[in-house]
Amino acid sequence: MTDASAARRPGEPALAALGLGAPDPSPADASPHSFPGGGRWRTEIPSCEGPEALAVVLKEASRLDVPIHRISQGSGVWMLTDAEITEMVEATGERDIELCLFTGPRGTWDIGGSTRTDSRGAGLRARGHDSVAGCVEDAVRATELGVKCLLVADEGVLWTLHRARAAGIIPADTTLKVSALIGPVNPAAYAVYEQLGADSINVPSDLTLDHLTEIRRVSAAPMDMYIEAPDDLGGYVRMYEVAELIRRGAPLYLKFGLSKTPGIYPYGHHLRELTLSTAKERVRRGRLALDLLARHGADGDMAPLGTRLPGELRRFGTPS
User: Fold this and answer.
1) pTM of the predicted structure, to 2 decimals
2) pLDDT tens, 208-248?
3) Mind listing the pLDDT tens digit for each residue in 275-306?
4) C-alpha distance from residue 173 to each of 70, 149, 150, 271 (Å)
5) Cβ atoms 253, 267 nearer than 8 A
6) Torsion of CA 171, 172, 174, 176, to 10 degrees
7) Angle at 131 between CA 130 and CA 134, to 5 degrees
8) Using an 8 Å Cβ cutoff, are 42 and 251 in contact?
9) CA 156, CA 130: separation in Å to the nearest integer?
10) Is 72 helix (H, G, I), strand (E, B) or coil?
11) Which residue from 70, 131, 271, 299 has the least number of CB within 10 angstroms?
12) Neighbouring-strand partners of residue 252
C-alpha cells in the first residue's frame, strides 16, 4: 500500500500524454492531521438499522474484504429494543468495530409544521425541553447497554451530552458524532462543533476540496463524509475524488452511502427487504471505492482496525 498523498490522479497519465495534464497538487492544501495511533482515514457503513441489517453488513464485508471501523444507525436508540441493542453491541464488539446509534426524537418527526415549509424551519434539531430529554434518555440507555458512540443532530444536545460525559453521567470514553443532517459548511462552524464536544463531524458531501482545506486550517477534529450520499442529502457520488478527499480532509471517515433508494428512517419490519438489500449494497459501494483507491496508488494510510478515539480536541470550558 502507498501513501494517499502520492496518489496517481484519475486519468492523469493518459491526459498528460495528450498534453492535457493538470498542474501538480500543492502541498500547501494538504491536511497535516491524522488519527491518533496512525492513519489518515477510517471507514463507516451507515444506515445499519438493526441486528439483521448488521449481520448482512458483516457477512458482506467479510466476503468482499471491506475493512470497517464504524457502523452507524439512523432511526434512533428509541426504535430498538434492549435485546436488539445488546445483540448489535456484541456483534460489533467481537470484531472490534465501533457502533454508533442516533439519539432521540428530532424535528422532522415532531409535530412542528415548520420543517415542512420551504425554509425547513428548525430542521432536524430537538424542539423544546422534552425532545432534549428524549435524546438524553436515549444516550443513558444506550451507554448502559454498552454503546460507545452516539449520533446527534442538535447543538444543544451535543453540548448537554458533552457535559454529561464530563460529569460521569455517561462514560468518559463515549464519542459524540455530529450528523450530516446539520453538518457545518464553513471552518468557523466546524470549530464550534469541536468546541461543543464533537469527536467526529459529518460535513455535507457537496463541500468543495478547497472547503475541506479551509476547515483543516482551523480544526483537527475527525471529519465524516459520504462518498456516496443518499438522495435526501443530495445523492452525490464522489468515488473518483476519494484520494484527494483524504489528502485534503484527513483524518477522514469514508462513509459509504447509497443514492437512488427510498428513505428507511424510522425503520420497522415493513421496510425489511429494502433495508437488507441496501445494507448489502452499501458494503459493495465501499469495495468499489477502496478498489479505486488501490488502483490510484492511494490505499495506504488507513488507520488500524479497532481504533476509534479522536485524539486531543479543543473544548469550551464546561460550567460547574
Assistant:
1) 0.89
2) 999 999 999 999 999 999 999 988 888 889 999 999 999 99
3) 899 999 999 999 999 999 999 888 889 999 99
4) 15, 9, 11, 34
5) no
6) 130
7) 90
8) yes
9) 12
10) strand
11) 271
12) 41, 223
